[in-house]
Amino acid sequence: MHFIYILLVNIFTIIFSFQILAKDCSKPTMPSLEEWNIWLSEVKKEALSLGISQETIENELNNVKPQEKIILRDRCQPESTITLDEYLYYRVDKARIVIGRNMLKEYKSELSKIGEYFGIQPRFIVSILGMESYYGRNQGKISTINAVTTLAFDRRRSSFYRKQLFAALKIIDDEMIPSNNLIGSWGGAVGMTQMIPTTFLESAYDWDGGGIDIWNSYLDAFASTANYLTSINKNPWLNDSTWGREVLPPKNIKEFFEKIQQTNAKGCGAVKSRSIPKFLNEWSKLGFLTIEGKPLPSRNNLEARLIAPDGINGRMFLVYPNYKNLLYYNCSSYYAVSVGLLSDKISN
After folding, report:
1. Mean pLDDT of all residues in the chain?
2. 201-239 per-residue burial string, b: 16 or more CB within 10 A, e: under 16
3. Among 146, 238, 308, 348, which one is least packed by beta carbons within 10 Å?
4. E strand or H helix at 269, and its extent?
């Protein structure tokens, strides 16, 4: 029965995704063979200048062709027309919670060691895998070289994917992963962790000593996720703190909501949409309560920012410094809140 439930959830999620697809998805104009070969020749020269071997360049790029279905998927991504509650319904579902709890139990010893080494609570590691690949069940089966080469040629995000292409070639050239094993999503994300090639080079971690394998080794996937979330070039992860919590705003929230918004903030939309920081005791004085209607924790040294993903009339959350680290994985308020809530539920 449990397997049937998971299957039904996957089916409904696919149907839901199709329902919110952008309606204007015109068929892309594919390049001529001449255009493709000219562009590919330039890419090969640049790859060689970056230190990638001629052998790898020829082996990987000589027979690659632009994939129409990949360009179509990139241009026809779902519109942002759903609410947070709708997003949570499909992302923090019962099956995902049950599997996450079982994973925490099954790998309790290993996750404890990895969490202690990187300074992060295991529930966040598992929650990320649940969100990214349904705990390894939905990793994608598309050649990463085909995906990133196609998207590097397409003008929409060519600069970003050109970097991913060179990173993917380096992964193969350095014999980190055999070419035929470098597979993942249409967008170039790979493994249980769904890391793009540049992130793989930055954070992928060989925990079990058998070579980096985030496709088949849960231990490597756990450690790679932990390494990325706690990297020193990001905010320090606070191991004695959580991600945030849902709150009840005071009745006069409209009177000061605009006044607490950031101005001239840098970063993506989800980073900019956080309020100015205040200590928890300051939020308490403004009248904020936990979702259960109780006083906020009395931690006067912990900063929190208010977020309202669906606006002032929607659900509100006070998020702590760790929340920003979750945004590095996917800079979406819906995504980061989902990871946080899933981590709460699988640890209960």
Report:
1. 90
2. bebbbbbeeeebbbbebbbbbbbbbbbbbbbeeebebbe
3. 348
4. helix 269-272
**Residue 44 contacts residue 57 (beta carbons within 8 Å):** yes
**CA neighbor of 179 nearest in space, from 206, 219, 146:** 146
Type and span of the H or E element at 160: helix 158-173
Q: Is 33-75+138-229 a domain of CATH 1.10.8.350?
A: yes
Q: Where does the chain show beta strands of DSSP type E?
A: 142-143, 183-184, 244-248, 278-279, 289-290, 303-307, 316-319
DSSP 275: B
**Tell me: the pLDDT tens digits for 302-321?**
999 999 999 999 999 999 99
What mean pLDDT comes out for the span 92-121?
98
- Confidence category of residue 17, pLDDT binned at 50, 70, 90: very low
294 CB burial (10 A radius; 0-12, 13-18, 19+): exposed
- Give mean pLDDT, residues 40-66: 96
What are the phi and psi torsion angles at 251 (to 5°)? -65, -25
Q: Is 302 helix (H, G, I), strand (E, B) or coil?
A: coil
